[in-house]
From TrEMBL:
Species the sequence originates in: Bradysia odoriphaga
Family: Belongs to the G-protein coupled receptor 1 family.
Keyword terms of this UniProt record: Chromophore, Disulfide bond, G-protein coupled receptor, Glycoprotein, Membrane, Photoreceptor protein, Receptor, Retinal protein, Sensory transduction, Transducer, Transmembrane, Transmembrane helix, Vision
Annotated TM spans: 52-79, 91-111, 123-146, 167-190, 215-236, 280-304, 316-335
GO MF annotations in UniProt: G protein-coupled photoreceptor activity
Protein name (database record): Ultraviolet-sensitive opsin
Length: 377
């Protein structure tokens, strides 16, 4: 279907060209003045079945309930319990706030989905995208500082302890780094926020075919994906390397001393510290890659590749992966934390967590076990 009529006018913006008896195009129910804010790429695709809109709406309702409860509990317990009010845990709280923020925008998507399109219009599209940018990039950079903190504690156990002032400074840096990527497109200083996919969600423009858009996509891809991912992978790879070396040294020393292990509690542990740390590191890296790689690839294809690959349905996948990871984060970072489970059990005994208090013996184990506790928690 051609976008241009015989008179050289952009027919895709004309209401009569969008509501034929044979097929309805995306945006058929959008007022003409609102159509101008939608990339032409989406307006050439047929409207999806109503069932797809409703399915996505219900999926987002489930994401919202799970994420708000999980992250809400993390924020509440970590801020209320004195035993959890450590400088390092301030990053966990900040991550939970970012994930909580990400889900606060979902009512816009849900309303649009059940109204089958761009129902709330331009203002709420901008609000949706601003919150998404702040929460998404903020979470990515928070993950970086969580990785840095754990790397610092493990590689410098006596000097690497985070102070409260340093943690506050790092959190301020996170938000200073994050805010411009929401402000510039919102104010159209550089880039812009536009609807995407089924026109029920909004993100930065990666489809407009000009140098400015391609430059913006390249820069934001570097600063919001490549840099955080590279730093996370570096810190966790160093953690694993350090623990593996430590474990090897312990085994060699035990062999020289003709004993099975240098750890008094080795028999009580079903997994070695190196296995638990490897699992934690792999899980954390996987979650970040799973959440943001689809968006990064999609943006690069839109700006530099074959736009025909980007169908409305395909672009819904990255949006869902980000929300899914926002649901998982509180469980990976907090529910695996034994002291968090204890505090949660004390405040909500109806959950029947039945976490046993941490004994003095468990807290006075060897360096490798301390590494395990710090990293997994």
């Amino acid at each position: 279907m051609s976008l241009w009529d015989v008179n050289g006018n952009l027919s895709v913006f004309r209401p009569e060209a969008r509501t034929s008896s044979e097929i309805r195009l995306l945006g058929w129910n959008v007022p003409p003045e609102e159509l101008q804010t939608i990339p032409e790429h989406w307006l050439t695709h047929p409207e999806p079945d109503a069932s797809l809109h409703y399915l996505l709406g219900m999926l987002y309702i489930a994401f919202t309930v799970v994420a708000l409860i999980g992250n809400g509990l993390v924020i509440w317990v970590f801020t209320a319990a004195k035993s959890l009010q450590t400088p390092s845990n301030m990053f966990v709280i900040n991550l939970a706030i970012c994930d909580f923020m990400m889900m606060l925008k979902t009512p816009i998507f849900i309303y649009n989905s059940f109204n089958r399109g761009y129902a709330l219009g331009h203002f709420y599209c901008q609000l949706f995208a601003v919150i998404g940018s702040l929460s998404g990039i903020g979470a990515a950079m928070t993950n970086v500082f969580i990785a840095y903190d754990r790397y610092n504690v493990i590689t410098n156990p006596f000097e690497g302890k985070m102070s409260r002032g340093k943690a506050i400074l790092f959190i301020i840096i996170i938000w200073i780094y994050t805010i411009p990527w929401a402000v510039f497109p919102a104010m159209q200083i550089w880039g812009r926020f536009v609807p995407e996919g089924y026109l029920t969600s909004c993100t930065f423009d990666y489809l407009t075919d000009n140098f400015d858009t391609r430059l913006f996509v390249g820069v934001i891809f570097t600063f919001s994906y490549l840099i955080p991912m590279s730093m996370i992978i570096f810190f966790y790879s160093q953690i694993c390397s350090h623990v593996f070396s430590h474990e090897k040294a312990l085994r060699e020393q035990a062999k020289k001393m003709n004993v099975e292990s240098l750890r008094s509690n080795q028999g009580n542990s079903t997994e070695t510290a190196e296995i638990k740390i490897a699992k934690a590191a792999i899980t954390i890296c996987f979650l970040f890659v799973a959440a943001w790689t689809p968006y990064g690839v999609m943006a690069l294809i839109g700006a530099f590749g074959n736009k025909a690959l980007l169908t409305p349905g395909v672009t819904m996948i990255p949006a869902c992966t980000c929300k899914f990871v926002a649901c998982l984060d509180p469980y990976v970072y907090a529910i695996s934390h034994p002291r968090y489970r204890i505090e949660l059990n004390n405040r909500l005994p109806c959950l029947a967590i039945n976490e046993k208090p941490i004994s003095d013996n468990a807290s006075s184990t060897s360096d490798a076990t301390q590494v395990q506790t710090t990293t997994v928690a």
